Amino acid sequence: MKNPFHLCIVDDDDIYRFTIIQSAKFLKIEHKTSVFPNGEEALTYITENQNNPDALPHLILLDIDMPIMDGFQFLKAYKALEATIAKEIAIYMVSSSVDPEDIEKANSYTAVIDYLSKPLKSDKLKALIEKTVVEQKH
Amino acid sequence: MNIENYQIQNLDVAIADLNEIARIGYWVFSVKTNEYRLDKVTYEILQLPYGVDLNKKETTSYCMNEDKWIFIKELINNEVKQKTSFNHEIELEVQNGTPIWVQLIGKCNYNEGECIKVSGMIQDITARKTSENQLIEKNELLNFQENKAGIGHWKWNSKTNLVTCSKNISRIIGVPYGSVVTVDHLINSVHPEDIEFVRNHLYDSVTSETFDTFFHRFQLEDGSERIIQVLGEPFFDEYSQFKGFICSSQDITTIKQFEKELLEKNQLFKVAQQRAKFGYWQWEVKNDIVTCSENMSRLLRVEENTEFPISTLIKDVPPQDIAHVRASLDKIVKKKYFDSFSHRVMIDDEIIYVKVQGKVITDSEGEIVNILGVSQDITDQKLIENELISNNQLLAFAEQISKIGHWQWDFSTNIVKWSTNLYRIFEINENQKIDFETYFSFVHPDDQEKVTAKINALTENKNLEGVVHRIVLKNGKIKTVELLATVNLDRSANIVEMLGTLQDVSEQRAEQMKFKALLESAPNATLILGKDNIIQMINIQAERLFGYTSKELVGQSIDLLIPSRFDERRAPLREAFFANPKIKTYNIGDDLYMLDKQHIEIPVEVTLGPLQLEGDFLLSVVIRDVTAEKNYQRKILNSKEELEILTEELTTQNQQLADFTQITSHNLRAPVSNLNSLVDIYKMMGNEQERSELFSKFETVISHLTLTLNTLIEALSTKSNTSIERGDVIFNDVLTKTKEIFTAEITRTKAVIKSDFSKASSISYHKIYLESIFQNLIGNSLKYRSKERIPQIEVTSEMVNGKVNLSFRDNGLGIDLKKHGHKIFGLNKVFHNHPEAKGIGLFMTKTQIEAMGGTISISSKVNEGTTFSIQFI
Description:
The complex is a heterodimer of chains A (138) and B (873).
Chain A: E1 5-10, H1 14-26, E2 31-36, H2 39-48, E3 59-62, H3 71-81, E4 90-95, H4 100-107, E5 112-117, H5 122-137
Helix pairs in contact in A: 2-3
Chain B: H1 2-14, H2 16-22, E1 24-30, E2 35-38, H3 40-45, H4 66-82, E3 86-93, E4 99-111, E5 114-124, H5 126-149, E6 151-157, E7 162-165, H6 167-173, E8 180-182, H7 183-186, H8 192-208, E9 214-219, E10 225-236, E11 242-251, H9 253-264, H10 266-275, E12 278-284, E13 289-292, H11 294-300, H12 310-313, H13 319-335, E14 341-347, E15 350-362, E16 368-377, H14 379-402, E17 404-410, E18 415-418, H15 420-426, H16 436-442, H17 448-461, E19 465-472, E20 478-489, E21 495-504, H18 506-521, E22 525-529, E23 535-538, H19 540-546, H20 550-553, H21 567-579, E24 584-586, E25 592-595, E26 601-613, E27 616-625, H22 627-684, H23 688-720, E28 727-730, H24 731-741, H25 743-749, E29 752-756, E30 762-765, H26 767-783, E31 792-800, E32 803-810, H27 817-820, H28 841-851, E33 855-861, E34 865-871
Parallel strand pairs in B: 29-31
Antiparallel strand pairs in B: 1-2, 1-5, 3-4, 4-5, 6-7, 6-11, 7-8, 9-10, 10-11, 12-13, 12-16, 14-15, 15-16, 17-18, 17-21, 19-20, 20-21, 22-23, 22-27, 24-26, 25-26, 26-27, 28-30, 31-32, 32-34, 33-34
């Protein structure tokens, strides 16, 4: 497969990143993973590759609480960039916060498909990837 | 004797004709024989029988007036003795009683120095004397008239240039009557300014031989001026030669002044005529010619400056007034004095009232020259007068309408007089005899004591007294009356009479009762104020509210009920109210209080209303006790305050709660969820190698979790520790200790740490907290230093508003506050991709500062440095 499923994790928590990468491996779905410890690095990568769809991820799992640039700051910057991006990217917010304020704020961004609470179980991750694959084929 | 006879005979013959015409007789008195010899004419003059011996005793009987005869005899005797001659005019009475005038002339005949006889003549001058006397009489009359009319006559002979004056002129110019004066003398007293004019006029008259009438002023001794009119006629001799002038000078000051006034005021007069609606007219009675002013012609609708008869002047007088007008005019003409009169005129169906005033101008003979009249439209005045009359009639009714009667009680005669209306009030016949008991018998039994007391008080104080009491009429009807009484005293202050008024105030009373009832039924305390804020009436609610009885308050000023501290605020409100009196709530500011009898302040709300009662302007003051409301309000305010405190507390707690939520979700939930995920992965892993690798992950998460929990416990204990031990902590000691801790780091980074604690060297604080604050902030500065420069750290203390401020400034990496300002002091927040950033230091620093009541703030610029400022309490 020339262009395998590209999962992107934006989170400063290395343990979390490790658990997602491990879970994805268990899914037996061909994919590649990219990780960014904060929003700024992720945004830099996307901006650099905005005209290169192959390099861009299919799915981003975005944390809220990160140093340098948190999830919301990333979304704000991404919103301004979205129209110029040559690829449809599914963004899910994944956070340990159960604060309704955070949830509401996350859902106010059209780019965010859903807000998910940590921990993200592997079957849930599987469903996300499958759903994204189906929707992006059209 | 012969000679004598001869002489007489000769005389008889010689003057026989003369004798007849001049009636001159001749007589001789012989001194020697004491005998009179008279000629025939003498006997005729004396109307004596011819030949009567005058010396005989019986002679006297012929002369009725004995004294004259004696006078004559004395004359002759004197003649003999003194040898002088005489010439006398003597009035005698002849036998039949007729008075005659004779001129008696006598002289002595001498013989050797002795007077031997007296001879003379006698002439009957009766006719001359009579006419002379008549002339004198006439002259007297003329003089009198001259005087009265202020006229003098003078005759000027142009040839001699001398003037003969009449008595009046002579008197005026101060020369004896009959003397002649020069023209200059005559005009000497003419007003200095007019002398030249008069002189010129007179000489011009001589030149032209005609005399034009002229006027000049004349100055009297007292300095007053008179105006003189001079008329003149030339006179000529038989050869028609001009001889001079006969002139008359008349004092016309009064006339002239009138004319002058008219002239002077002519312009004003014209305007005034129109404005004051009057016209001026002049009537020459003799020819019945009337001329009038412009205004008058307009009124009369006749052409200006035309002449018309008096009938035209009065043509608009209505028939009922014409007789009166005619009579008035006739009277003026007859009396030569203008009595003003009034009449009406009808012009265009409109009645105009005219008042006519004027003056009668007479000439020197007292004849009317003309009559000047001023007719004035006094319609407006008349209307006012009429109004006054009707007002008077109204006044006459006033007593009746106001139901007032008056009375008088004469103490000396004990007679009581009542006015008609008083009878009417008592509903008794006016013919009924009245004494004091009459009045008293009507007084209501319950009021008799009160009335008696007042009358006694009056008798004692001799001042005005008033009492309101009831009377019971014959028919049982009860009326309320107000009795006002005063007394008149004689010189020894004894009462001469008592007098006063009595007003039936039943209706007012009824109104008042109604009003009182209304007042009583009012739900709120109400005061009725009269002039000067004096309480006139209060209701039962007011009595209850203030604890005063009605009696105690009525007559007092409302100031009694209002604390004086409101005086200043009340004044402008009061003014504003009286400027625009309408019902309004008295808003004096936040709270108005009134005082009750115990001087306890009652919170009130006051509504003022203007009130028209018995014709007086009154003020109703409605007072609402707002104590209960105030209490509620106070309660609400208190609760509000309590709530605010609670809210504040809750907000603080919420903040802590929010912090805790944050901490639980991010700092506790995250490691826990990681643990869960790791457990799942662990289950899925079959490989022991992989599992042992995974175990190190578990250790990381658990150690992180432990640190977080420890921090939380520390923070919670800091926050809950309300009685933190304080002690004097010296900043320099703390800094020194901090430097010791970071010795390796400082040495490695070559950091320079400066300090200035000169403004405040120490603070009362928890020593461990302060050390922790220094370590965290200086540690951060070292940790987040810029690799491009040598770290510079400055610690400075300051005093701001008596409080210690401490600042930590570095030249490190700085923080983008726009991005991270909101979470800078949160737990586990890291803003740098720094391996040592744990996000605990600032969280703990803030907690330690706030626990002691202080605040911390940050200012920073990326890549320039950061300053933390701490305000201690």
